[in-house]
Write a structure and sequence with these properties.
Layout lengths: L18 H11 L4 E10 L2 E7 L9 E2 L4 H14 L9 H4 L1 H7 L12 H5 L15 H7 L15 H14 L3 H13 L7 E4 L5 E8 L1 H12 L3 E2 L2 E2 L3 H7 L24 E2 L6 E5 L3 E6 L4 E9 L4 H12 L13 H13 L18 E8 L30 E7 L2 E6 L3 E6 L7 E2 L9 E10 L2 E7 L6 E9 L2 E9 L7 E10 L4
Antiparallel strand pairs: 1-2, 1-11, 3-5, 4-5, 6-7, 8-9, 9-10, 10-11, 12-13, 12-21, 13-14, 14-15, 16-17, 17-18, 18-19, 19-20, 20-21
Helix pairs in contact: 1-11, 1-12, 2-7, 2-8
């Protein structure tokens, strides 16, 4: 099975770029407006550069955000290839039963929307339909301002509808449908690949978590016009249309690479002929078919400028300097590059320097508020998008917690089920813990007293860039709790919630 077959590795020189140049590229990727997590590059389907910044590693799945839209689009392409679906089918026809069941009065222009329009984000909506609640109903009742196919409006509701299209036309969820048709054929471990679900059981968006190499393999498939080891997995016609400008995006609010045009759930780049899978905060898969060059990145780029800066570095320091011919081998430079790649790690947290004025040890019962430590991802001013994807069979609300202190560690237990071991010296030690996302257990945590009466526990949920800062301030018998969840946005960086608790023995 292809899942057991490794991609071939070559030196950068065999890919037409010097090892010294690759090292320079990696160095410049670590700019001020991001935290790099994983990077891979391949030429002619062969890997010539790869590195992860510890504690991130090659086997760890990482949030894709809207990169996941391209996995859903690939499922649509395969369904078209298998003649289970036509891109010209109308959405109202596919969802006729759901529309009748909900007694929806569909706007006239909505009746014209085809699968092709949804793929290219040219639905015609005046504003993005909400993905809260009944998102299928929201899609078909949203106001339409433009003729479908004529105007671009970036949205996530369409990707959700495409996943529902796959379920309707094939009888399977996207991941289940892709497992034998894509994952097993191009070498993606389906058991490791995480695809969270909506409460209605449909595979959700944005909710995929993949390894960096998983994403590279998908990029290579597109670079090869949908072929893998001689097998046509997705039709050439679909890939050709996907890797083209289906609609101009001149008026998009994004940075420069957001205004170069859109294909099928992917973007055109500012280098002509280059396209990319693109997820929030810089989850990239860059494809240059003419040069047979693919680059993928997992990072935590600070919006609005960090992700574009990463793209600029990749263009200037890698793509645009790659030669079409092999370069002479430089063993010393290559060995230096490999050693450098293996040495990379993210900066550790601040160590504890203070002694508390009181003993924080013990068990506490929450008496008000809803401040929890779980993975959270929210746009500026918005709600936690990932709250809906939690395993609701588990205790979601933090109702009880406890602290146990050791010389080098604070043990923070939540609801008796989740143990967070936080290093007091700032070291980021990779660990696992059960939580409301059972498939996303990886974390690093540190603890320190920011004031003699305030304990801060910093949890890095390393299956993504997500981070939660939990601050506990003891005041007159009440433990004040503040939960701060990272947004990675320059203008509004934290989603904040608060609560209060008392020691159990003091109730």
């Amino acid at each position: 099975m292809e899942a057991e077959k490794a991609l071939e590795r070559i030196t950068p020189e065999e890919a037409g770029i010097s090892s010294r140049q690759v090292k320079k590229c990696i160095e410049e990727l670590m700019h001020e407006t991001t935290q790099m997590h994983g990077f891979m590059a391949a030429r002619h389907g062969k890997v010539f550069a790869e590195c992860w910044w510890a504690p991130f590693n090659s086997e760890m799945v990482h949030s894709n955000h809207s990169f996941g839209k391209s996995y859903t689009a690939t499922a649509i392409g395969i369904a078209v290839t298998e003649k289970k679906l036509s891109l010209d089918e109308k959405m109202v026809d596919i969802f006729k039963d759901e529309i009748e069941e909900r007694k929806i009065c569909v706007p006239e222009l909505t009746k014209k929307i085809t699968v092709r329009h949804v793929l290219s984000m040219t639905n015609g909506h005046a504003a993005n339909p909400s993905i809260e609640g009944d998102w299928i109903a929201n899609y078909f009742t949203a106001a339409i301002e433009y003729e479908p196919g004529t105007r671009f409006l970036y949205n996530t509701s369409g990707a959700c509808m495409l996943a529902a299209v796959v379920k309707k036309k094939t009888g399977e969820n996207v991941k289940d449908y892709l497992t034998p048709r894509l994952f097993e054929k191009i070498g993606i471990n389906a058991e490791r690949f995480v695809w969270l679900k909506w409460p209605n059981g449909i595979d959700a968006e944005p909710a995929t978590f993949a390894t960096t190499e998983d994403n590279l393999r998908l990029a290579i498939l597109y670079m090869n016009n949908g072929r893998w080891n001689g097998e046509q997995i997705v039709s050439e016609e679909f890939i050709r249309e996907a890797l083209s400008v289906r609609i101009k995006t001149d008026e998009a609010p994004e940075q420069k690479d957001g205004r170069c045009g859109y294909g099928y759930q992917l973007w055109a780049c500012s280098i002509p002929g280059v396209y990319r899978f693109d997820g929030g905060q810089g989850q990239y898969g860059i494809i240059w078919p003419e040069k047979e060059l693919c680059v993928v990145v997992h990072e935590g780029g600070i919006a609005p400028y960090g992700p574009q800066e990463t793209l600029d570095v990749l263009y200037e320091q890698l793509l645009l300097v790659a030669d079409d011919e092999n370069l002479p081998q430089d063993r010393a430079a290559y060995d230096e590059l490999v050693a450098y790649e293996k040495s990379l790690k993210i900066e550790k947290d601040k160590p504890n320097r203070l002694h508390p004025e009181i003993d924080f040890s013990g068990t506490y019962s929450v008496i008000s508020g809803n401040a929890d430590p779980w993975i959270g991802m929210a746009p500026p001013g918005g709600f936690d998008l990932f709250a809906i994807y939690r395993d609701h069979s588990k205790q979601e609300e933090m109702t009880e917690f406890s602290f146990e202190f050791r010389p080098d560690q604070c043990r923070f237990r939540v609801n008796k089920d989740t143990m967070i071991k936080a290093s007091m010296d700032g070291e980021l030690i990779l660990r696992e813990t059960d939580n409301v996302f059972p498939q996303l257990k990886n974390y690093c945590a540190t603890a320190r007293f920011v004031k003699p009466y305030i304990l801060e526990i910093r949890i890095h949920w390393v299956n993504s860039w997500a981070e939660t800062k939990m601050r506990f301030e003891y005041q007159k018998g009440i433990m004040k709790i503040t939960s701060m969840k990272l947004r990675l946005n320059e203008e509004d960086n934290w989603l904040v919630s608060r609560g209060e608790a008392i020691k159990v023995e003091e109730r």
